[in-house]
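Standup notes
- DV: blocked on the single-chain target, sequence here:
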Amino acid sequence: MKAMDVMVRDVITVRPDDEVAAAIKLLAEHDVSALPVVDDGGKVVGVISEADLMRREEIGTERHRSWWLEVMTPGATLAGEFAKAHGRKVREIMSDTVVSATEETPLGEIAGLLEKHRIKRVPILRDGKLAGIVSRSNLIQALATSDVAAGSDGPSDRSIRGELLDRLGEQAWTDFGSRNVIVRDGVVHLWGLIGSPQAHKALLALAEQVAGVKSVSDETFPAY
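- DV (later): unblocked, structure below
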């Protein structure tokens, strides 16, 4: 499997000049631990994560050192810590080192990047612009479906997933998206919260009518 087979396509992003308070609100509202930072051209220029927000003046977690440790600490380190504690714009506190991959990157390589760099997610780029994101949880979901036998008849898993995600995107009754869908040998695996019994029935009906779907593995749970 490759990044495009499991990546989340509907990625929440922020801009470098956005307020940090707005980024914090997005993290909380969408229950994610990090947001890619993109410029006006769609290029990923950084990531703002929970780790960047741990030492904030507002909640009294700003780092404090004894005077002699502060004297021994490099000025660049002190300046960086001050920016993260007091910065009001995303560009002032974001991590500007971006570890990324492409849609064709095998999941084995993605796992290696996550492990090597001790990160929780990898932005997926297409022609240098953000196309999606793969997180640790996406890999766990892929692992959970790995015992399904592979097959070659009918539409590919990739095309089935793409068609299903396109149809989901057209529906006003749900925000169920790519972070919750994996297709393996024609079996659609659905994960996550469902907002109502009606939405649950509609989601199953939508998935079942996509050409090439052999069955639907319903692993959702109610939020109502």
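- Follow-up: The mean pLDDT is 85.
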